[in-house]
Amino acid sequence: MNKEDYKIYVEGRATKSKCAKNCIFAFLIGGTICVVGQFLKNLYIYLGVIEQNASTLASISLIVIAGLLTGLGIFDNIAKIAGAGTLVPITGFANAVVSPAIDTKSEGYIFGVGAKIFTIAGPVILYGIFSGVIYGVIYYFMGVL
């Protein structure tokens, strides 16, 4: 089989990408998550919480909701449709922490949940902190110059 025949064979067998559809669903569902977060913030402000605390409470509420939906098996179904729309915001981080905890619960709380809870989220935390340090050093030296 020559190169051209192989290329035709691969193109015939490959599944077609639904990039536009995936982007639309990511935008709509990710946007809905943001709207829910803004609604919660406005609700907390309406209930008399100061704005800074209302923002924190809204974030915590989204984390709890995502954790509950992950535990009930609903979050993964939403993520299959929305893709990055659910995985990028704070809800995706909550899912990345809760999922390994659920998967390893049968191994016990110490050697299962405790040892593997940050399997997915750990690298995100590590590289987020590392990037922040690098950015801070660059920012510092740019200010000194």
Gist?
The protein has 145 residues and is mainly α. It contains eight helices and no strands.
Q: How would you describe what is shown here?
A:
The protein is mostly helical and 145 residues long. 82% of the residues lie in helices and 0% in strands. The mean pLDDT is 85. The longest helix is centred in the N-terminal third of the chain and has 28 residues, at 19-46. The chain is built from eight helices and no strands.
Overall pLDDT: 85
| N-end to C-end Cα span | 61 Å
What is the N-to-C succession of helices and strands? HHHHHHHH
Largest sheet: none
Set out the fold topology.
Layout: H1 3-13, H2 19-46, H3 51-71, H4 74-82, H5 84-87, H6 90-103, H7 109-116, H8 121-144
Can you tag this structure with a few keywords?
8 helices, 0% strand, extended
